[in-house]
Design brief:
The complex is a heterodimer of chains A (485) and B (95).
Chain A: H1 7-16, H2 21-39, E1 42-44, H3 47-62, E2 73-77, H4 104-111, E3 115-120, H5 154-161, E4 167-172, H6 178-184, E5 187-190, E6 210-215, H7 218-228, E7 258-262, H8 272-287, E8 291-295, H9 303-318, H10 337-348, H11 351-363, H12 369-390, E9 396-400, H13 416-421, H14 427-432, E10 436-443, E11 449-456, H15 461-474
Helix pairs in contact in A: 2-3, 5-6, 7-15, 9-11, 9-12
Chain B: H1 5-14, H2 21-38, H3 73-77, E1 83-84, E2 87-88
Antiparallel strand pairs in B: 1-2
Amino acid sequence: MSAPETVKSLAAKLAAGEASAVELAQDYLAKIRAANPAINAYVETSEDTTLAEARAADALRAEGRAGPLTGVPLAHKDIFCQTGWHARCGSKMLESFAAPYDASLIERSRAAGLVTLGRTNMDEFAMGSTNESSYYGAVRNPWNTGHVPGGSSGGSAAAIAAGLAPAASGTDTGGSIRQPAAFCGISGIKPTYGVVSRWGMIAYASSLDQGGPMARTAEDCALLLNTFAGFDERDSTSLQRPAEDYTRALAQPLAGLRIGLPKEFFGDGMADDVRAAVEAALATFRSLGAVTVDVSLPRAGYAVPAYYVIAPAEASSNLSRYDGVRYGYRAPEYGNLDDMYAKTRAQGFGAEVKRRILIGAYVLSHGYYDAYYLQAQKVRRLIAQDYEAAFTQCDLIMGPTTPNTAYRIGQNDEDPMAMYLGDIYTTSVNLAGLPGMSIPAGFGAGGLPVGLQIVGRWFDEARMLGAAHQFQQATDWHLRTPPAA
Amino acid sequence: MSLTDQEVRHVAKLARIELPDAEIERTRSHLNAMLGLIEQLQAIDTTGVEPMAHATELVLRLREDRVTEPDRRDACQAVAPAVENGLYLVPKVIE
C-alpha cells in the first residue's frame, strides 16, 4: 500500500503540475461522500464552495503567484468563523449561525491558498474529550468505530485518520488538539499561548484557548504553523514577535537533546499498553542520540482540578453572550426578558456545557471566589513554575498524551469525572501556556493508537517539531492508516 | 462542601439557565462531583503566591482612538433572531 498523502506530498504534486487543486479537491470530496456518513467527522461540506476555492488556487498558480501551499486542501474545525460556511461550534445554540467575517486563522489559511474541504465536528463549544457532546452527533474513531475519536477536535482528527483530509485546524484548551491526535494516531501541535490569534475563534476559556494544526506528520504541522501563526492586533493576547520559520529545525539531529521524563507522568494511572508504546518511543529517541533525564512536576496532579475551576469560570463569562438576542437560537415561547434568556439557554445548550457554566458561575459567585477561583490561579502559577524548574534540566519534556487509548462510545456517560481525569497529562500545559504536541507512538490493545506528548519551553515549537520529525524519520506509526481508510 | 437543591437553583438563576425541578437532582449530583474534584486544590499551600490570571505576562496594547471598523450593521444583524429597523427586538422591559 502506498503511503498516505501529506500536505507536503500534495504541495509537491501541485508544484510539479501532476495534479490541480480542483482534482485534489474532487478526490477528497468523493472520499468524504463515501466515508463520512460512517464516522461523522464533517458537519458541513459545500462542494461548490470548495471547488470555487480550488479553481481560484489553480488560477493563482497559472499566473505564477502560487505560494508553497496554494491548492492544498484542508478541513477547518467548526469553531472558526468563516464566511460562506456555518460556524455551529457543535451546538444547537449556533445551528443557524453563519459568521459575517473570517477568523484570523481562516484569513491566513485563505491567503496561503489552502482550499477548505469542509467543517469538522467537535464537542459542543469545545467542552469535552470524546466528541459525544456535539449536538450534531458523536464522531466515530476510524480505527474502531465503537470508540470515540477524542475531543474536542475529534472531527478534525478523525477526518485525517480516515484519509478524508490531509490536515485540519484544531483548538486546544485542555488537550483538545493533542488528545484526539493521540486517539486517532495523527500529529497535532498546540502552540505557545498567543502565537496563533484567537480572533474569530469561538471562545471557551480565553486564557487557555489556542488554535493550531493537526496533520499526519510533524513536518506538515510545521508547514501549517508557518501559515497559522503571527501577530494580530485584533486579539489583545496575540504576541508581537518576529515571524519565525517552524520548519527550521526539522533536519536537526537529536544527538545531545535532553528529554525530561516527569515521574508524575509515568505513575500508576497509565494503562500498560500506553506505557509499553511510550517506553518504546523513548527508546527510539535514545537510539537517535537523545538522552533522557528524570524530572519532577510536583503539582502536576493538581492541573485537572485547577483547570476545572479556571476553564468553567471563563466559560461562564464567555458564554453569557448566548442570550437569544444578537445571534443564534432563541426559544420559541417565553414571557419576559429574563424568561427568554433562561429558556433560550436551557434549550440551546447541551448537558456538558450547562454543567460547566453552572460550576463556573458558582466558583465566581460571592463567598467562593477566593476559595476556588483565586486559589486555582495561584496553583496555576505553581504548575507553571514547576515546568520552569524542570526545563532547567532538559530541552523537551515527554510522556504519554493520555493515560488510556480511546474510550468506547458511551463509556463516560454516567461519569463525566472519569473523562475529566483522562486529561491529566494535557491540562497543565495549557495552564502554563506552553507549547505541546502529540505524535503517534504505536498501538495499544485492540489496535487503538497511542500518542506521545512532547512539551517545550515557551516558543520552542521549532525544536519540538524537529524532534518529532526526526522520530518520524525513524518510525512509520504516523503513516499507518485504519483498515477502512 | 456540597451543594443543596436551593444552591443549585440559585446558581442556575445566576447563569440564566432554566432548570426544571426534574433536573435538579441529577444536576446537583454532577456539580457536587465536580466540587469534589476541585476541593483537592485546598490541600496546596499557596501562601504568598501571586495568582496567575493569564498564560503570559501581558501588557495591554494601546491604540489610537479612531474608528477602525467599517459599519457592518446589516451583515451582523442578519444572523439575529429578531430585528426591526436596525434594532434588536426583545420582550418589553419597561412598562
